[in-house]
TrEMBL record:
Protein family membership: Belongs to the PRP39 family.
Cellular compartment(s): Nucleus
Matching SMART domains: HAT (SM00386)
Protein name: Podospora anserina S mat+ genomic DNA chromosome 1, supercontig 1
Single GO BP term: mRNA 5'-splice site recognition
Superkingdom of the source species: Eukaryota
Pfam family, one: HAT_PRP39_N
Length: 587
């Protein structure tokens, strides 16, 4: 805001705005803090007007601009901002705000209708007003709840006494399945009786109707006057439009069930009920089955306002669009909106999907940049690090992949537990890509002390050894290698008893199924150490923090990090439970 000591109000007002600004900057996702800041800015100088100080006006504009950059789908605040600009600086400034708002929430019936209403009152050049109405129609004309917009358009043409244009609008609207569809047909039908035949249908259709009427007259041996011919033609046209009405009625009825279940058609930062998400899924399934591309896009865009913070819906929209021929830029736009505006970076799945899309489209540098951007904010996102390493493996080879992992391991901003995951991925690449078991084992062994408190590290090393192929001659050596990992885990790590028992069960199962003659001795030793009473259990002694060479457990906070599991989006993805109740968590 430039001068942080002067927001254009009294000392008390400036102090309050400074405090609220700090609150907003400390937690930009807190909607209530933003609302408090906006209200405080609006009340500067006892209420802002064109005579308010430049500092106060700058404070208001800056707050609104930042607020609506963070929450661009709040049509009510765009309207409020436009009204304020109109009162402060006049119609040109207000129009700029309306343009920005309609660009940010292109499918808002309310905002476009307000903009058109504003234009009607402030512009006296009809073709400019009509151009705006037509622009709006391309974005919201097919919306099921677009009747306020069409009413406003008809109101304008009624003011202009442009009966031909009123008729043209009605002729378009009667084809659209939407709320209050019937009254448009009734008005259209009344007007149709007063309009020339040439306005009702095309020249080709009119010629066909005339030929039918005259042919029927000849067949019956009748001689009809021109007036009678016109009356019969109108009857056929009226029947044609009645069939149109019936089709619109049918299509409206099909959608009514879904529309009736939409309880919150606008954006808000709070969660939706599970039932609302389920209804959107069913509605989208229905519209996709109908197969009308434009109507499907309109419904998706409506859904993405209400469900903007649910990455599930962005994934669905992008996948559907990707299935349409020649819609690559549209898919990119969907990913961009999701990644840059709506889905928090704490859920990186949609951004990584965007990176894969760019990679497929030969924009590898952009795919890299997406990964880098995520890690700038989430340096401990193991999913992103592994994804980036594999991007480099695919595009530049194994050494490039390892370089990504090496950089993260060396980074001072990356936690020790994330570094442990990077080491295991490094070892996995050496094993599965390079084919070097010895180098992979060396990677694990070299860092066993540094990452001894990482559950993921021991789990991956354990799995690595268990998956090595053996035969009867090699089984003894194999047992030694597996036992070494388990023993080091027990003696070096400070993991909880539960995690050690979990790995202990895997080792005991290995001893039962693949061990030799002496295996059951180890089996019973592990059983005692892991599951015996405190007096004989090494794991229990560690839990108690006892000495005698037993490493004590981690404190609760560190243990939560040390024993965390790393998942990618698809490992956590599951089909939604359509019977779930209550609020649907964004995560």
């Amino acid at each position: 805001m430039g001068d942080f000591n002067n927001y254009g109000g009294t000392d008390e007002e400036n102090s309050e705005i400074a405090r609220l600004t700090a609150d907003v900057e400390a937690d930009t996702d807190n909607f209530e803090n933003w609302e408090k800041l906006i209200r405080a800015c609006e009340s500067l100088d006892g209420g802002l007007n064109r005579n308010s100080s430049p500092q106060a006006l700058a404070t208001l504009r800056n707050s609104y601009d930042r607020f609506l950059l963070k929450f661009p789908l709040l049509f009510g605040y765009w309207k409020k901002y436009a009204d304020l600009e109109f009162n402060i600086a006049g119609p040109e400034s207000a129009e700029i705000v309306y343009e920005r708002g309609c660009a940010s929430i292109t499918n808002s019936v309310d905002l476009w209708t307000e903009y058109c209403s504003f234009k009607m009152e402030t512009t006296h050049i009809p073709h400019l007003v009509r151009e705006l109405f037509e622009r709006a129609a391309t974005h919201i004309g097919l919306d099921f709840l677009s009747h306020p917009f069409w009413d406003k358009y008809l109101e304008y043409e009624t003011r202009q006494e442009a009966h031909d244009k009123i008729f043209d609008i009605l002729k378009r609207v009667i084809h659209i399945p939407m709320h209050q569809y019937a009254r448009y047909y009734e008005r259209f039908r009344q007007l149709a009786h007063t309009r020339p035949l040439e306005e009702l249908v095309s020249a080709e259709e009119l010629a066909r109707y005339r030929a039918e009427v005259e042919g029927e007259a000849v067949h019956l041996g009748l001689q009809k006057t021109e007036l009678e011919v016109e009356r019969d033609i109108r009857g056929k046209i009226d029947q044609f439009f009645y069939l149109t009405f019936q089709n619109t009625q049918t299509e409206t009825t099909k959608r009514w069930t879904y529309e009736a279940e939409i309880k919150r058609p606008y954006f808000h930062v709070t969660e939706l009920d599970h039932s609302q998400l389920a209804n959107w899924r069913k509605y989208l399934d229905f519209e996709e089955a109908e197969g009308d591309y434009n109507r499907i896009v309109v419904l998706y865009e409506r859904c993405m306002v209400t469900c903007a913070l649910y990455d599930e819906m962005w994934f669905r929209y992008a996948r559907w669009m990707a299935g349409q021929e020649g819609k690559g830029e549209e898919v990119r736009n969907i990913y961009l909106r999701a990644a840059t505006l709506f889905v928090p970076i704490s859920r990186p799945g949609i951004r990584l999907q965007f990176a894969y899309f760019e990679e497929v489209n030969d924009r590898v540098d952009r795919a890299r940049a997406i990964h880098e951007a995520v890690l700038d904010i989430l340096p401990d996102s193991v999913e992103t690090i592994v994804s980036w390493a594999n991007l480099e493996r695919r595009q530049a080879g194994l050494d490039a992949a390892i370089e990504v992992l090496r950089a993260q391991i060396a980074s001072p901003t990356v936690s020790i537990y994330t570094k442990a995951a990077c080491v295991t991925e490094w070892a996995t690449l050496l094993w599965k890509v390079k084919g070097s078991v010895d180098e992979a084992r060396a990677a694990f062994s070299k860092d066993a002390d540094a990452y001894a408190d990482s559950r993921h590290f021991w789990q991956q090393w354990f799995d690595f050894e268990l998956q090595q192929p053996t035969n009867s001659e090699m089984e003894t050596k194999h047992l030694e290698l597996v036992k070494r990992v388990f023993t080091q885990m027990c003696t070096k790590s400070r993991l909880s008893l539960g995690i050690k028992q979990e790995l202990g069960r895997i080792y005991m199962n290995y001893l039962q199924n693949r061990g030799g003659k002496e295996a059951m001795k180890d089996f019973l030793d592990v059983d005692r150490q892991m599951f015996g009473p405190r007096s004989v259990s090494l794991a229990a002694k560690a839990k108690d923090g006892k000495e005698n060479g037993v490493v004590p457990e981690l404190d609760p906070t560190s243990r939560l990090k040390a024993e965390g599991r790393f998942y990618n989006y698809y490992e956590l993805h599951a089909d939604p439970d359509e019977n779930a109740q209550g609020l649907a968590d964004f995560n």
